[in-house]
């Protein structure tokens, strides 16, 4: 095959530069193009560095996209079909300091070299200096590892009189471990600090990298001394790894809370007990125990359990209390609680009473560990997230439970995870400087946009969407190791178009926002936004990954709101020439009235329109009803909505609703083509009534249980029909203002109210509910038994 110049290469490889890359070299090249070849070497051992990234940049054409290739197993590389010109060559590899060809040292500017037509460079050598590592653990004075301690490496001053400089900083994990990596050869001081917390604060900070200063807390230098002048310096050789650099901080874990409610020394009222592991039954030493009580449920007394998990709280005033405990690596739990995270049982203490044998069972938290790689090459600073399903406004949402950053070996550790089902996701947005300090956001974005194909969010084990991912089941205290993830690359494309205003101009700042159409994938989604040119209405989002999106625009000319929502499907090709016309927002008028002569407190009522459908982004509208029963909802975008009325008391419920002549009592409000008349709402005072009691499996009343009244399946998209109430101290409840119809009643301490609005979740426990029929002015009494929480999948 004969290469026919730059145009052919551009169309073939989609490069904006007029050279291409291959490895190994092509057998036929253009007569005018050159070859640049060489080897990447370890500056210490002299051996070849495999999978180093080589970047060749045309120094004379700054607008050209640089070409990137990787060295082979022996460190060799070949750039073929290089146009004549002046170039700079850079080599990078994790665990090494980057270097440029011709530079006198690592991370120093190199020299550009000229490439003539048909020239061949075969002997280019680039030496990479291996970086060093300092690792160890941070402990409290009680011997327990400290989670979330900040550990810093300070570069010793090279000139007398100068100060030490920050090299890198990380946070300890749940084992108190840290790993300071990316260190150039030299002398360092290591310090650790820990912010003091009250006992109610449960530390859960993920390991991360930061260059900001540490504020507050206790601090020590290695080996556990107060001043840097007294610290032991650590000499890091090229590629050296210093281990067991441990530091002990003079704190007993968490700081006990004050004890304003403690009795005098004459009080002999005492509580004794033990904290144990709920999974193994073994004692939990050094657990933090707290006694709660009073109207505000404050922490009144606290102490620390001994090595056998035993504790004693003395000098307690008579009264009613709850007792709970916490420890690093466990969920906070209370004595007598049905499950971790739920309120425990209340007990009363009389004067001079001793209550013994109080048991607190702590549920151990889980851990997921593994590596983040690209073709067996670790990706330092890749962000890893543990995700789980939850509900918001009746919709399943995938949210982040915790996150961590991969270290120089690509290793990550996600800890502090309650038992459950999780999805693992990872992404990578740019490199790390040789010092280990993160690139700025703008630097990372620029680096990413230059690459031939970008890393995209990848789900375990090798999926690009949650639907194709494999969930991870995490039992109490379980450690899932070897959960490795190879990141995927995908070329992102340009999306551009024009916003059209009915007024012919766009005053002020206008922004288009690109959001995923499927609400479930909006996991900490970083919106892709772009400014709209005020004169032309043009916009451009330069780097969009493939997917299904909604393009959203909102704008006001000062008197009228306009908006647009446009579905956009992004594939492998750029999306251009989008036309996005702005549509005036609607003003919806309506009236609310009573069916009979009952007296409604109309100003206390609110009428709301909640947007419905795929790709909905905001747009909720709510307004108070006037004294005459009228209301006006302004700035409503055309679309589909669900109508609701809040503030109804006693037995009142929405009996009927109309949009013009159309009955919308049990259906959506269709405003896609504007409003065909006013909204009329009729409220009746003849709603049904259901009273009852909730019992546990021992037939004892259950207080603070959530009782849910769920409508029959065909109406479960109507939020107004759901009813929720919490049981009192005797396990009793009362529901009022129920619309006539078929329902099921459920009682649980573990199910979020939003979960009942998800048909898939309700189906998993639907058979455990009590069916009942509610009629106008009807009253009935029922008895419910607690049901367990479903597994959200």
What does this structure look like?
- The chain is 3% helix and 45% strand.
- With 793 residues, it is mainly beta.
- The strands form 15 sheets. Strands 2, 3, 5, 7 and 8 form a five-stranded antiparallel beta sheet that branches. Strands 11, 12, 14, 15 and 16 form a five-stranded antiparallel beta sheet that branches. Strands 20, 21, 23, 24 and 25 form a five-stranded antiparallel beta sheet that branches.
- The protein is flat and about 95 Å long.
- The two termini are 54 Å apart.
Blueprint of the fold:
Layout: H1 6-13, E1 34-42, E2 53-58, E3 67-70, E4 76-82, E5 85-92, E6 96-97, E7 99-100, E8 113-115, E9 120-130, E10 132-140, E11 150-155, E12 165-171, E13 177-183, E14 186-194, E15 218-221, E16 234-236, E17 241-242, E18 247-249, E19 270-277, E20 288-293, E21 298-304, E22 310-313, E23 319-326, E24 333-334, E25 347-349, E26 354-362, E27 366-374, E28 377-378, E29 383-392, E30 395-405, E31 411-417, E32 420-427, H2 441-450, E33 454-456, E34 458-459, E35 472-474, E36 479-480, E37 485-486, E38 488-490, E39 493-500, E40 511-516, E41 528-531, E42 538-544, E43 547-556, E44 561-570, E45 575-581, E46 583-584, E47 586-594, E48 606-611, E49 621-624, E50 630-636, E51 640-646, E52 653-659, E53 662-663, E54 669-670, E55 679-684, E56 688-695, E57 706-711, E58 723-726, E59 732-738, E60 741-748, H3 759-763, E61 770-774, E62 779-785
Parallel strand pairs: 1-9, 10-17, 10-18, 19-26, 27-36, 27-37, 39-45, 47-55, 56-62
Antiparallel strand pairs: 1-4, 2-3, 2-5, 5-7, 5-8, 6-9, 10-13, 11-12, 11-14, 14-15, 14-16, 19-22, 20-21, 20-23, 23-24, 23-25, 27-28, 27-31, 29-30, 29-32, 32-34, 32-35, 33-38, 39-42, 40-41, 40-43, 43-44, 44-46, 47-50, 48-49, 48-51, 51-54, 52-53, 52-55, 56-59, 57-58, 57-60, 60-61
